[in-house]
Amino acid sequence: MSNKRNAAIFYEQEGFSTGGERLLGRQSAGESFLKGYLKFGAQDQLYCYTDHPGKFKAFESQIASWSDQAPPSTWINPMTLGRMSEPGCLFYSGPSIGPFAWQRRHIGSNSFSLCGLTHTISSMEVMDTFGDLAIAPFEEWDALICTSVSVKKTVEHVLANYSEYLEQRNGGKVKLPVQLPIIPLGINCDDFAETPEKLAWRKSFRETHNIGADDIVILYVGRLAAHAKAHPLPMYQALEIAAAKTNKKLHLVQAGWFATAAIENQFRSGARKFCPSVNCIFVDGRDMDVRTNIWQAADIFTSLSDNIQETFGITPVEAMAAGLPIVATDWDGYRETVRHGIDGLLVRTTMPAAGCGLDLAYRYQVGIDSYDRYVGQVGLFTNVDTQDCANAYLTLIEDSALRKKMGAAGKARANAVYDWNVLIPTYQDLWTDLADRRTKAETNAFRTPVPLRDDPFKLFAHYPTEQMKPQTRIRICENAVGNVEKYLGDTMGNGASIIMPNAATIEDFVKVIADADTMSLQELATAFKMPIGKMIRIAGWLAKMNLVSVVKAE
Fold first, then answer.
1. DSSP 179
2. Within its chain, how far is the Cα of 193 from the centroid?
3. Which residues of the chain are under the pLDDT cut of 50?
4. Tell me: the pLDDT tens digits for 370-407?
5. Domain 189-418 has CATH 3.40.50.2000
6. Which of 173, 293, 353, 439 has most Cβ atoms within 10 angstroms of its Cβ?
7. Using an 8 Å Cβ cutoff, are 336 and 417 in contact?
8. C-alpha closest to that of 40 among 421, 419, 428
9. How high is the pLDDT of residue 518?
10. Local structure of residue 419 (DSSP, 8 states)
């Protein structure tokens, strides 16, 4: 019996850890979700779906590092897929849930639900997973969570294009049963609350970098990559304009990491060239001490995303939780989290009209341009209004009361809307709805679970002279008795041992066959209460080793 509000977590440590050299948004979101689910899921059992016991041990270790009172964990793997009916849902922290829909066909599409989650959606690989929504065996009790309205619009656009193609090619209407709910990413707001330790860190940081009591610190947190995250030029130029119009000293703290020395040089030299009046400070955002405390060192948070890789944007929400007013671009998910004039100020963006970029998509499709170059080129044609941005910075720089008011509004919004204590129950409400849909549906059984991955003995049945069937008769070969271990333990015969009974069991089969003149495979299967398919397969191996011979069919 499944718990409708539970789910097995598909686990790869890289997707749920921020401890690596490369810190990506999806890793931060994955780690945050897992902590939130552990804290607010209210489950008496955790389920982990992964393909290796070592990964399950890593899951248990990570959970134990956060709580010494965590519920017990159960490992489910592809060979124990039937146990997925216990949690009732598989949660995959990514959009690529098509392969799991095909796996599920082996035990029945009603056996459990699938729930995926979008992050970056601009790569060819992710677009292909959206295509799977139209052709893989999904059901109405499956869902792909869209983290923003913008994401859902893009997914629906891709599906409309692909459905039109499939309908033109094959005729008929394409069925798109998957649910596309909008649920934002979440955070643990308590992680960003002001504490005496964080205030002490703020004091030390500001003293170290000669930041005066009346100076203004503008903070950016995130990967430092002009081509793949946010181009810094509008930020630099807008801050230079603002610096010329205020009497306050401005400091720009960029907390992130550089993938290459060339990118680092681009940012550092660009800061010197385009905002020389601003004191630019770079700190490693992968450092836990920095990630925990840097928010308290700032007066204003900014993120001028202009990249199609962005879909939701977790850092503005984290800044809101820390009580910072925000200057962000009017861009995809940002406009859904930051309320213009309430939590912060949104900066105007523009992009070329539809139809102007098919050649960019083609260059990426055929491999002339890499993914990084593709998204980088799109970003270079996407404008962040520099003057509008400068005005937003100046407004907040000059008005401490407004900064305080917007920071308080953002903090209240983060706690009310984006904390995991609010969002985990929303996930569980979705899983409950999917379970209700599943249990009301008729049970499905499939003659061929995966049409393009059929049983090899069926797919290639016309290759041999004849097939071994239940009525096929076999007889013992000379010197067979006592020699099973010889072949099962040799490289000549042990290639299938992992899916065979042990040598002693097979030896028992051989002894029974030896006592008969000939024996049908059905008779042998019945004698040992074994499924006929497995017995036929074992007989095939015995014949291969020349321990039995197959009697020619008359």
1. B
2. 27
3. 1
4. 999 999 999 999 999 999 999 999 999 999 999 999 99
5. yes
6. 293
7. no
8. 421
9. 93
10. B
Q: Which of 3, 17, 144 is nearest to 74 (CA)?
A: 3
Q: How far is the C-alpha of 77 from the C-alpha of 103, rounded, in Å?
A: 11
- Rounded CA-CA distance 491/475 in Å is 25
Which residue in this structure is represented by tokens 């213009």?
340
- Rounded distance, CA 105 to CA 85, Å? 13
* Residues ≥6 apart with Cβ < 8 Å to 458: none
* Cα angle: 305, vertex 311, 312; to 5 degrees: 85
Token pair of 551 as six digits: 């009697």
Q: Which of 202, 224, 225 has its CA nearest to residue 213? A: 202
Burial 269-299 (b: 16+ CB within 10 A, else e): ebbeebbeebbbbbbebbeeebbebbbbbbb
CB 273 within 8 A of CB 194: no
Closest CA to 476 of 514, 504, 509: 514
* Helix, strand counts (H, E) of the chain: 21, 17
pTM of the model: 0.91
Q: 334 φ, ψ to 5°?
A: -60, -40
Residue with tokens 């649920």: 183
How far apart CA 234 and CA 301 sit, in angstroms, is 15
Task: Name residue, tokens 């014949």.
Answer: 543
List, in order, residues 6 or more apart from 331 with CB less than 8 Å away: 305, 306, 310, 349
Three-state DSSP class for 305?
A: coil
Main-chain dihedrals φ then ψ at residue 270, nearest 5 degrees: -65, -40
| Nearest-angstrom CA–CA distance, 227 and 263 | 9
Task: Give the pLDDT confidence of 208-243 residue by residue, as tens digits.
Answer: 999 999 999 999 999 999 999 999 999 999 999 999
Query: Exposed/middle/buried for 122, CB within 10 Å: 0-12, 13-18, 19+?
Result: middle
Q: Which residues pair with 328 in a beta bridge?
A: 303, 346
Q: How far apart are alpha carbons 43 and 553 in whole angstroms?
A: 58
Secondary structure of residue 368 in the 3-state scheme: coil
What is the DSSP secondary structure assignment for residue 460, as one 8-state letter?
T
- In this structure, what DSSP letter does residue 448 have? S
Residue type, 445: A
Q: Which segments of 269-390 are extended strands (E)?
A: 279-284, 300-303, 326-329, 344-347, 349-350, 383-384
Cα 217 from Cα 212, distance rounded (Å): 10
Show me where the domains of the chain are located: 8-185+425-440, 189-418, 456-550
Q: Is 348:281 a contact under the CB 8 Å cutoff? A: no
